[in-house]
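Entry 14. Ran structure prediction on the chain below.
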Amino acid sequence: MTTFKHYIAALWLIGAVAGMTGCAGYAGRVEGMRTALQAGNKKEALKQVNGAMELGESDHYPVDADSETSLLLMERASIKQASFMFQESAFDFRIADQNLEFLDVQNKTVGEISKWIFSGDSGEYRAPAHELLLLNTLNMLNYLALSDLESARVEARRFDLMQQYLADGSDEQMRSLGILGLGDYLAGFTFEMSKRYEQSLQHYGDALSTNEYPSLDKVIPDLAGCTSYRNDVILQKLNNAGAGQNPVPGDSDVADGQTDSTSSSRCIHPDRTTGTLLVVSSVGLVPHKVATRLPVGAAVVIAGAYLAPQEMAQANDFAIKGLLKWVNFAELAQSPSKFSSVSVRVDGQGIPSEYGENLSQVVKDSFDKIKGKLIAAAIVRMIARAATGAITNKAVSGGSGKEGLGLLAQVLVEGAMTVADTPDTRCWNALPASIFISRMEVPAGKHQVAVHFQGTGGGETVTREVSVPSGGFAVVPVHQLR
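Output, structure tokens:
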């Protein structure tokens, strides 16, 4: 009888654990933030994300920052950037960058990945490639808005290092994750304004290899007169502009931290009385992760290429026996967007806007490229769960002499482990869905910039006054995260 009571107590404890671990995870923690953003209430969104970090104010920081805190800081940095708090946003990004690890599915086994991305969001958060690239890209944008070229160059180099790491890998799908046209465009702009013309052309060439940027049609020939650097994309642009034989004064680039007055005197019109105005606007929110359950049969089909034969056999065996019916997983859900397009006017004059980056597509492509391996990792963990349940059934049935009690124990063990084994819904929610670029040369001085957002939810105009120095630049980010 004592043994039987012990089993009952154990089963009650297992059930209690199942109840305690049933939580909404990261998706639930930031739901209030996302709802506030979609309503256009950035102040409330900041309050919500601060609450998720258990902080009272937006200029407060956690004493012990971990990887999930870093993700929340990235959310807050995005909201601050959309609120024109560029210095504060940059600081959040810098702290977040110090505590992030890369989700390297290229060089890790399915078993290793399964330890990273499950167990109720309790492990270290590892950011996918596109999030790390966008962190550097958006922080570069912050520094450009602050006219801080030195810090912008630091972010441009960090962006470049991450791209090089991915490009050097053996997996073609992973290499493609390192392609982000917007990051290369802003890096090209950063080095152009720093008079580092070779680096500028390199990044502009990379940007043009992925997206069409009509605003660079005139920029490329101008820069080509300052450096000998060429690649196929640059040569094509020069041929299209009728500048294929553009004279080159030699490699005018110099060491970091220096400028070459000789080269700059031979290109980009040194006596000009104009400056460059770059407006970077965005709308919507990217897809975010939500917990879901996949039928095991469908999951095995998607992840079959990443499962070992023994794991495939186990999954099918447990499915046939009814021990494994579902696989816990995180799927992408699209946030509704109030706006879908932008138009920009400077001093009442309309200027062209072009697609800087479709970040919703970037997020989807990134997820799709690693989805099979992530599902395989989920299957491996669920196999372990089903095996533990079967072992518990056998042990309890044998010890108590009651087959029904063993079956109940198996159900409760599997239930508790299923709840605890929740998919990782952590991801960067507060990223804009679409980013647009508007660029023009304007007379030096003050200008009125008006960005009009339009969509199914109606229209809205945001105005900003900006001062553009002679021979210099001004960058104006205007984000509507809804």
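The chain has one domain: 2-480. Will compare against last week's run tomorrow.
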